[in-house]
Amino acid sequence: MSAARRGALPAALVAAALAGLLPGAARAACEDATTEPGLAACYAEKVARVEAELDKVWQAARRRIDAVGGADGPVLAQHALIAQRAWEEYRLAECVDGVRAHYGGTAAGQQYEGECLILTAQTRTRQLVWRYRVPRELAPITYGEAPL
Question: Does the record bear Manganese in its keywords (predicted)?
């Protein structure tokens, strides 16, 4: 996701409460957070890590696409970029819409958006690896701890 797109989301929402997605010690530390800023700080690293994995895979996919020769190369590159931009718009709309559905004085909206950002990024990462046959050595990814 581009920095401009990430900037469109409020920072506290992007770094939402993701207690069910973090392992042991990290989850316990986040459960001890009692304020929205505390939750945001606690989970910001998880969102950033998953997005970094996605960005790595997207760059590897672009290198593979750019290596396609002949008349098909530029067309494939253009279509891939259109698809990625459309996915970014979808992700933003999907995750922000879910937040609005969960408002009500609790951190539920933040938790929904954080989980949405993580799960959609992990799903898109897997799609790119599969679609463009990105070798793991070009884009080593961990997919985080969240089950899909």
Answer: no
